[in-house]
Design goal:
Length: 211
């Protein structure tokens, strides 16, 4: 098989598919998580600088061998790079966790360039909400909403996980109110989400101080 090595002007989806196929050919069943999933699910409305593939076994020499077939190499750092693209790869250790719970069975996202083994849309939303819940990361909230706007997401499951596993009933309620607007075809920008999230955080701090 002839592997693609030039990713000039390649989309995140095309790179992720090439990586998944190269890994699969070397019997490495890594799962793409993080912002890369948002890039694919939102058709590049959000563009991640890197693609994270979680590998439970972390056989770095085998990963290096697989990625060299598509022109990605690693020097002394933890990243894999290809000189034809600014998008780099990272392989955090497994298992694939979403907050306090393991991720559900990943999907095989079919593309013209191959299949991407990645988080489900629902788990991708949870994955982004972890950062919003823990660090008030408004960009992560924006990313979660992009997935909601573009893909079928099980919001009941997101609520169960948010409340029972993460203890974030209040922040889930805020996220759900924005998700409702998104599903009603509300046009939104990252700046609007950041401002809404910031306003909500100020209100929450004020409420706590008045207790």
């Amino acid at each position: 098989m002839t592997w693609r090595t030039d990713f000039t002007d390649a989309t995140h989806e095309e790179i992720a598919a090439a990586v998944s196929e190269a890994l699969r050919a070397h019997e490495i069943m890594a799962v793409m998580s993080g912002g890369g999933c948002v890039s694919v699910y939102s058709v590049n409305k959000y563009q991640s600088d890197d693609l994270d593939f979680v590998d439970s076994y972390r056989d770095k020499p085998k990963i290096q061998e697989a990625l060299l077939t598509i022109g990605f190499f690693s020097n002394r750092d933890r990243y894999f790079r290809n000189d034809t693209t600014g998008i780099y790869l990272e392989f955090p250790p497994g298992p694939v966790m979403i907050g306090n719970e393991p991720a559900k069975e990943p999907v095989e996202w079919e593309t013209s360039a191959g299949s991407i083994r990645m988080l489900t849309p629902t788990d991708s939303v949870k994955d982004r909400l972890v950062k919003f819940y823990e660090w008030n990361d408004s960009q992560a909230l924006y990313q979660a909403l992009l997935v909601v706007a573009a893909q079928p997401v099980n919001l009941r499951e997101v609520e169960r996980w948010s409340v029972k596993s993460e203890g974030q009933a209040g922040k889930y309620k805020f996220f759900r109110s924005l998700a409702g607007k998104v599903l009603s075809r509300w046009e939104f920008t990252e700046d609007e989400i950041v401002q809404l999230a910031t306003d909500q955080m100020v209100k929450e701090r004020t409420r706590q101080l008045k207790r």
